[in-house]
Amino acid sequence: MDAVSLPGVASGTAHLSEVTPSALAALGVDGFTNTLELPDVRSACVLLIDGLGAELLDEHAADAPTLTELRAGTLHVGFPSTTASGLAAIGTGVCSGEHGMVGYSFELGNHGVVNALRWNQHPYGEDLRDQLSPEEVQPLPTAFERAAGSGVGVSVVSSAAFGDSGLTRAVLRGSPYTGVHGVGDLVAATATALADGGYCHGYHADLDLLGHIYGPGSAAWRMQLRQVDRLVESLVEQLPPGSLLAVVADHGMVAVDDSAVDADAIDELGHGVRAIGGEVRARYVYTEPGALDDVRTAWRETLGDRALVVERDEAIEAGWFGTHVADHVVNRIGDLVVATRGRSGILRRTVEPIESSLPGHHGSITPAEQLVPLLLARG
């Protein structure tokens, strides 16, 4: 399959990585470009609602009247459509090929496959923060570091559990971190940051969590969407004059059906394979020397039209990771990149029993996973 016939992920919409630079440019910070043409302001917050896909919001607009009213556009998130990559895009202002957080899990040299959210050996191995420096894994200066260096006040408001995580250190460093415990202190801390001026990044995870556990669009997910709508409504009510609230997401989500396959139970998918990374909807396959052709054939024949199975260079040429992939990032991407279609997925019931038991997943190139809303409110 060549790049001409391989579908791209740039849907003609702006990329998630453009949001933070645009907000900082709107604040007058040198070195950033306002590609989204946001209005000039004295304070700005980018609030990321994990898992709020554009298609899901459109489908359940009645449960989210405030979010729907604030809809200003649509963004795409690039490949893979997953939290580690999306948060890195917000924190660095570049796509996954440059920031290097290329998945939920990916191979990092002698450390094997590393889980980027838990910063451990995937799936449930030891904590690697002391052995694998987050600042070296993602060496680009973050937008927070650059803005603070220009004298602009910056802050992060997110779960207290993530304050010293490897991912936070990799992509959100350079800012004071306010750890919160619920919706109430998330709203209060974000409102305070906006009143103080400068730039604030906020993050809320529970919509994604319930989507994974119960499925996107389930009763529990819809009730959580209503809580998110009230969260944003509360922030809008407290916006000070001259402030901007931009609400975005890191990916959408789909409910995987019984077309999913269990890679751990199919011998043909293990022959010649050194390691498997990624997640249910988007896999990286790392092959043994000389085995690439045989592995590619086996995965294509086994998965059929349930997935695109392409070589690393094909995915890079098609722009899945952005316009540029840094040299130190290339080998993090699998020798094969597997992007599932429809409602299928690639489970690993032996190696990843928890993840494989969940109905809701994301990571691939479908519009349901790629497209997220851009919501704007002015104070």
Report helical residue fraction: 25-40%
Overall, the morphology is globular
> Which secondary-structure class do the elements indicate?
alpha/beta
Beta-strand content bin: 15-25%
The average pLDDT value, as a whole number, equals 97
- How far apart, in Å, are the first and last alpha carbons? 50 Å
Largest sheet: 8 strands, mixed
For the CA atoms, what is the radius of gyration?
A: 20 Å
Task: Return residue spans where pLDDT drops below 50 for at least 5 consecutive residues.
Answer: none
**How many distinct helices?**
16
| Major sheet: arrangement of strands | 1-3-19-10-2-9-7-8
Question: Could you tell me the number of beta strands?
Answer: 19
Overall description:
The protein has 379 residues and is an alpha/beta fold. Helices cover 32% and strands 22% of the residues.
Descriptive labels:
379 residues; alpha/beta; eight-stranded mixed β-sheet; four-stranded antiparallel β-sheet; 16 helices; 22% strand
What can be said about this structure in brief?
Helices cover 32% and strands 22% of the residues. It has 379 residues and is of the alpha/beta class. It has an eight-stranded mixed beta sheet with strand order 1-3-19-10-2-9-7-8, sandwiched between helices. A four-stranded antiparallel beta sheet has the order 13-14-16-15. It has a three-stranded antiparallel beta sheet with strand order 4-5-6, with no helix packed on it.
